[in-house]
Amino acid sequence: MLPSKAQSIIKMGLFDEASRVEDPTHEFNERLLAEEEGALWDDGKSSAPTYNSFVVCLFRASALVLVFLAGALFGFQWHGDLDSLCSRHVSQYSTVIKEVEIRYDLQEFNGSLLKENVFRQDAGPDVDAAWESRSELYRSVRIPPEDAEQSGLAADQVKINAKYGGGFPANVEGLHHLHCLNLLRQSLYYNYEYYHAKREGPFTNNEYIFRRHVSHCLDIIRQELMCTVDSGVLGQVWIYPENPEPYVDFNTQHRCKNFDAVRRWAEKNQLPQDPPADFLQPPSEGDRIYSQMP
After folding, report:
1. Radius of gyration over alpha carbons of the chain, in Å?
2. Predicted TM-score (pTM) of this structure
3. SS3 string of the chain?
4. How far apart are CA 14 and CA 269, in angstroms?
5. How many CB atoms sit inside 10 A of residue 188's CB?
6. Which residues pair with 279 in a beta bridge?
7. Has residue 275 got a pLDDT over 60?
8. Better-predicted residue by pLDDT, 58 or 71
9. Distance of alpha carbon 31 from alpha carbon 40, whole angstroms
């Protein structure tokens, strides 16, 4: 038999050991206490991750603010020149884009069916003068060499002789479209005889070439209208108060380029009407020369 005092000591030890097993929070409490005591004696290095995270967050927030302010400033600066920006985005680049201040204005189309204007008159001097004032008489313009590639001109295309300034002869496409539309007007069944009798321009060609010229113009306009398809809509109005009927309203509003500015540029930059015989540079070795009209 152990002395009662020894038994008491053993019992106390067994009790302590059992209590440690039965109390799962004991180990956690000891670890927590150790961490708290360690924090009192920390040299400051353990707070670095928290501090660094704060700095990173602050830096990112500042960067976002700067990007937002820069974007807002850029947008404000471009707000006054959105017309030029949009034109450069949706139009083929050329010297016209570079030198003409393109603007878009709200215009209402004259879509009247029965009320004719000067452009719709039957063949005669007045209607011819109206159409010619738009584009018909303008000659080619000069595209500088530095604008050629970006304007879609190949290096081996026709060039102007260097002694006359160099560059590439070219025509403004929009004015060619109007030329084509004018030819279609002249070819209408009720205008054809008048212009055929005058024997001017396309009407000097034989019937085969003339018909191909007209169909060329028709198809060019078709492609242009499909390329720049108008996404506006035509509403309807009521006509005839006594017996109302719906009728399509063709007098719609459109955002239009300042056509006259382009026309004036083309007129001002026309090549000579009667250029010298050597005005164009002869083709160089290796330049493409087509065996027939492309």
Report:
1. 41
2. 0.72
3. CCCHHHHHHHHHHHHHHHHHHHCCHHHHHHHHHHHHHHHHCCCCHHHHHHHHHHHHHHHHHHHHHHHHHHHHHHHHHHHCCHHHHHHHHHCCCCHHHHHCCCCEEEEECCCCCCCCCHHHCCCCHHHHHHHHHHHHCCCCEEECHHHHCCCCCCCCCCEECHHHCCCEEECCHHHHHHHHHHHHHHCCCCCHHHHHHHCCHHHHCCHHHHHHHHHHHHHHHHHHHHHCCCCCCCCEEEECCCCCEEEECCCCEEEEECHHHHHHHHHHCECCCCCCCCCEECCCCCCCCCCCCC
4. 111
5. 11
6. none
7. yes
8. 58
9. 15
Side-chain-side CA neighbours of residue 218 (13 Å): 11
Rounded to the nearest 10 degrees, what angle do helices 173-186 and 259-268 cross at? 100
Residues in the chain: 294
Instruction: State how far the Cα of 13 lies from the Cα of 72, in Å rounded to an integer.
Output: 76
CA distance 134 to 182: 10
Q: Is the pLDDT at 222 greater than 50, yes or no? A: yes
